[in-house]
Amino acid sequence: MNDADRKPVVTVLTAPDEDTPPGLEPLSGLAEVRWARDAESLAGALPGSEVLVVTDFRTGVLGHAWPKADKLRWIHATSAGVDAVLIPEVRESDVVLTNAQGIFNRSIAEYVLGAILMWVKDFHGSLRLQQKHQWKHRDTGRALGERVLVVGAGAIGREIARVTAAIGMEVHGIAREGRDSDPDFRAVHGNDALHEQLSLADHVVVAAPLTSGTRGMFDARAFEAMRESALFINIGRGPIVCTDDLVGALRRKRIAGAALDVFEEEPLPPEHPLWAMDNVLITAHMAGDFIGWRAALSEQFLENLARWQRGEELFNVVDKELGYVPGN
Amino acid sequence: MNDADRKPVVTVLTAPDEDTPPGLEPLSGLAEVRWARDAESLAGALPGSEVLVVTDFRTGVLGHAWPKADKLRWIHATSAGVDAVLIPEVRESDVVLTNAQGIFNRSIAEYVLGAILMWVKDFHGSLRLQQKHQWKHRDTGRALGERVLVVGAGAIGREIARVTAAIGMEVHGIAREGRDSDPDFRAVHGNDALHEQLSLADHVVVAAPLTSGTRGMFDARAFEAMRESALFINIGRGPIVCTDDLVGALRRKRIAGAALDVFEEEPLPPEHPLWAMDNVLITAHMAGDFIGWRAALSEQFLENLARWQRGEELFNVVDKELGYVPGN
User: Fold this and answer.
1) Which residues in chain B are closer than 8 Å to A270, comparing Cβ atoms?
2) Rounded to two decimals, what is the model's pTM?
3) With the CA atoms of B312, B316, B321 and B327 taken in that order, what torsion angle do they form, in degrees rounded to the nearest 10?
4) CA B221, B124, B105, B178 torsion-angle sign
5) What residues in B contact A266, CB-CB < 8 Å?
6) Interface residue of B17, B57, B118 to substitute, partner A, most A CBs within 10 Å
7) Which of B116, B318, B312 is nearest to B202 (CA)?
8) What is the ipTM of this complex?
9) How far apart are CA A266 and CA A271, in angstroms?
10) What's residue B17's pLDDT?
11) Structural domains of chain A in order of their starting residue, each with its CATH number
């Protein structure tokens, strides 16, 4: 039996309350599959495992079980953000890390465009009036020609740029390094131009990964740089934003509103002041989760596993220094 | 003094509670301007008037004052729909009728796209959960590839088609006569294909003028033809829809939801059952009214007036038999 015929040992780590991911059924024919749902079962499953699939990006059990990873060569995270998986042990190892880039781009872009249009047309206000059975005409805005600043020019940021530009918005990007010419953005500016660009944007969208460079990027000074009329949208990661500073900016009307899918603490605690703000839309970390996303994630992993078993190069390989898949 | 130098008499009919339209200030230098706000003042102003500008499309005072229109040659309605102005006396006269076509297209199209995305992403549901400070993840839909049926392939319907197709939706139209090839729609189907097309659409948008052919078009049978998952959007005119049938279809879950900007009775009465339905968005006949729309209407009329004074052909001339500006 040659190496290509040998079934690899694949451990799948899910959240304790999570069902078996749909679409992974073919895996049992391709690999020896072990299931883990917590630190203990992960520690039991890792010895001998070559591949680890992590579908639980909320808890941090990987660190505890890491010493048992004696044969691990590849970790696949079924999420776009890999911050929860990129613990120092993983970063310093030569284990390859891949992610689910691509799956969520479109649905997240539709979330962003929907939030912008809901805001521009004041559907919030109409729904509030509707609860009082109150007919009240207002003039509202137009998205056409308004300026969108997308912080993070990766795969998700690019899809946001394409969808918002498609309806005639003017879309600029922020990336680690600026560039004049770009297929999706009017221009991509470097991080050092963030505050200047914030002052020009009607809508600010956080679509960056959580890295040491983006953590806390949206602090009081950033909100101070924004327009009073600006809508702030976060579909990236919660800790990119200093939540207390955001709450302060919304309270003092330094910015006009927010649409938030991710938070420093998830679930957002019931007593958090953001819930009660009527210029805020809160969604439960679901912007990318279209009907069928779990099966799509399984399909994507199986496609990469087939490459791995054929000895081919994996796609969606994360640069562990950068914290994301480079080159988008 | 030749005819071109003579100042025409222009009567402007506004609603009783309406301010003088902004942007009409230059008119006083171009014409002898008379203002009317009700049937009585209109009857006093009409004798000798060559031009009548109607900004009030809600009330029906024109009929009462019509016998006084001894020199009237042109009526301009500052709205897209001209049903309120197209009384039999106007229809049978040789007075030219123009409308405000073009001004509202884009903002109405943004309303429609916003309503579709709000629906697809279940922002309604998120806002309801938010009121209870409740974090609840759901999988939601994707607009990409979903089918939009736009009933009415005029200027507004076309802009809706362009904006929804721009983000990758599949857009079909319904017009009096079908055609295979169209620059904006995947296909335009004739009225006789309405029910068949309704059965194929994820989103149904009423963008038709109110005419004898469209009044009551959306009755119980039409809703019966629609998908149970369908969203129904009306930005056309209220009486195109049998409201009781719509309420019945929503109650029986024959259709999934509605976004309604126009109603058979406006304002929608406070006790109307539509207000309390949580799968319905109600707005106060404002889908087209972007900030600055009144000034844009004035500018458009003044542009047509300048043509008229130069003896040139007017634009936006309504075909009084059809009830709209043909040829879009």
Assistant:
1) 133-135
2) 0.95
3) 110
4) negative
5) 135
6) B118
7) B116
8) 0.95
9) 13
10) 84
11) 3-103+290-309 (3.40.50.720), 105-282 (3.40.50.720)
